[in-house]
Automatic annotation (TrEMBL):
It holds the Pfam family BPD_transp_1. It comes from the Bacteria. GO terms for cellular component: plasma membrane. InterPro entries: Bact_Polyamine_Transport, MetI-like, MetI-like_sf. It is found in: Cell membrane. This is ABC transporter permease. It is a multi-pass membrane protein. SUPFAM superfamilies: MetI-like (SSF161098). Belongs to the binding-protein-dependent transport system permease family. CysTW subfamily. It comes from Alloyangia mangrovi. Keywords: Cell membrane, Membrane, Transmembrane, Transmembrane helix, Transport.
Amino acid sequence: METRPRSFYVLGAFFVLFLLFLYGPTFTIAILSFQGPQGGLTFPMRGVSLHWFFDLFQEQAVGDIWGSFRRSFALGLMVMITTVVVSVMGGLAFRKRFAGNVVLFYLVITALVIPSILVSLGVGLIFSQAGLPIHWASSGFGSQLTWTLPFGLLIMFAVFNRFDKSFEEAARDQGATNWQALRHVVLPIIAPSLIGVALFGFTLSYDEFARTLLTAGSYNTLPLEIYGMTTNVTTPVIFALGTLTTAFSLVIIGVFLLTVWSMNKRRAKQGSDAGKGMV
């Protein structure tokens, strides 16, 4: 029987500790959210129930939980759609060299290394000095795009760098216009990557705090609302909210992954049917 080296167990223990560090806080919040009506914010637990989940749907003494959720959801959809459209357009544009393309590329990537709170402060100042209202759907939307667009563009750059242009050339040889080649050939091929960009756009926006802190205006998004609740709420209802929002995020990720899986399965079936038709 082969004996594993000691380094194997050391690395295995390190990996387990890393997982505990990564997911331990989330599991702790989830466990504490199931406390009884007399439960507090720390261990030991005082009973087990769904009391605090039901309490979430009652009128809260502080905060606007469901209003902030609706705003975060709407903002996430806005950012997601814009990120996908602009990323595809940027990816298509960078397939050919043009004047200033290198400078433009680094300007886009620079947004990732600028501290988020400075971006939020800068966008807020621009809107304030321009006499424009600071609102989550305008200044908040713009500041979040500085976070999601670089990720979307990097994904699209990688996708189009590996894209085989012969598919487009074949479509044009068959009489397709540029738009038809894009719609019926390019977009279906890169569709799984577009799903990934959409997932990045929505989840990064839905969870973003720093870039929204000074640009949301009078109405909080969900991360800002949760932060505000940490200074006012002293019951496990905040843990129940955290558990539900985490579950919602996992559901969103699952829907996107299921969509990619079904698209790949459909594509494989179409390829198999086409192969049978040629025989």
